[in-house]
Structure formats: structure tokens, C-alpha cells
Amino acid sequence: MHVDEELASIPVPRSLAERQAYARNRLDTDFQMWLATGSNGHGAHLIPVAYVRAGSALYTATFAKSSTVSNIKGRPQARVALGDTADVVMIDTSASLMDLPDIDADIAERYAKVSTDPRTSPEGTFVYLRLDFRRIQVWNGFHEFVGRTVMRDGRWLDNPVD
Question: For a Cys-Cys bond, which of 37, 53, 61, 151 suits 71, CB 3.0-4.6 Å?
């Protein structure tokens, strides 16, 4: 293979605007994610869960007595992944717990369409989690590792930072 052929086979990285549009689309059209939490004494914990997006936050629900809830109580942050290892949207979030009566009715209805409805379970079984965006990274291969951060400190970027 000649050098020109080798260079031509390397995909061109998407622009910041293209990656931001891709992230927004995934956030709005997907409904399943990997949710990772951790805290001192509880260790790392990873679960697959459904979600809905409202503005700059994702909402999900999990068992009130789960490791996820224990971890968030100890360290109110989480990492979310959409997609797979070859095409990922990675989101660092601040995390908070919400009792069932405190969730917005529209969010609860939308969530019930993509997962089990926590409102139909016995009281105290589930809690909702609100995951506020802090940083979002997007890449679909090693060629896009540079420029992967599309949001920082909860704000969409105007210029690449990495």
C-alpha cells in the first residue's frame, strides 16, 4: 500500500458542530444508556437503564435500595454512555435523587413509555434520578479522539478544547 492510499483510508474526523448535532440527536432519539456510579466504600457500579431527556438533563429510575442509589448518595455524580465502543456519546453528570411525587408529570409519562412505570410499584420501591450534563464527549474511532469534547461545564462549546 502506498502512503497516499494509506492516508486516504483514514476517515476524516467530524467537526465540532457535526459532533454536537450527533450528540443532540442521540440524546433525543435513544432511550437506553449505560449508567456508571461509584463512591468510597461502594465501588464502581454499572447498569443498563432507560432514560428520557428534558433540556440539559437525563431522567431515569432505579431501585431505591440499589448500589446506584447508595453511590449517588455518597458521591452525587455519574457517567453515562450512549452507543457502543466504536461510536460513543460519553456524558459526565451531576446526579440527584428524586422521590416519585417530585418528578414532573410529563417526564414520568414519557419515562413510562420506554421502561417500567415506577409509579405503579409499591411506595419506596423506586426513585428517579436526575442527571445534569457537565461534560459530553463524542467520537467514533481513534481518528476522532482529538476534538472529542463537545460540552464542558454544562455549556456547548464554540471551539474544540482537546
Answer: 37
**Residue closest to 138 by CA, chosen among 125, 124, 151, 121:** 151
Distance between CA atoms of 96 and 162, rounded to whole angstroms?
29
Query: Averaged over 92-98, what is the pLDDT?
Result: 98
User: Which has the closest alpha carbon to 57: 107, 17, 117?
Assistant: 107
Distance CA 47, CA 50 (A): 10
Helices (H), 30-143: 67-74, 105-114
Which contacts of 110-116 are long-range, i.e. CB under 8 A and separated by 24 or more positions?
110/52, 111/50, 111/51, 111/52, 111/59, 111/60, 111/61, 114/31, 114/32, 114/50, 114/51, 114/52, 115/31, 115/49, 115/50, 115/60, 115/61, 116/61
CA distances from 59 to 6, 56, 105, 158 (A): 44, 10, 12, 26
pLDDT of residue 2: 58
Among residues of the chain, what percentage have pLDDT more than 90?
84
Other beta carbons within 10 Å of 96: 14
C-alpha–C-alpha distance, residues 162 and 130, integer Å: 28
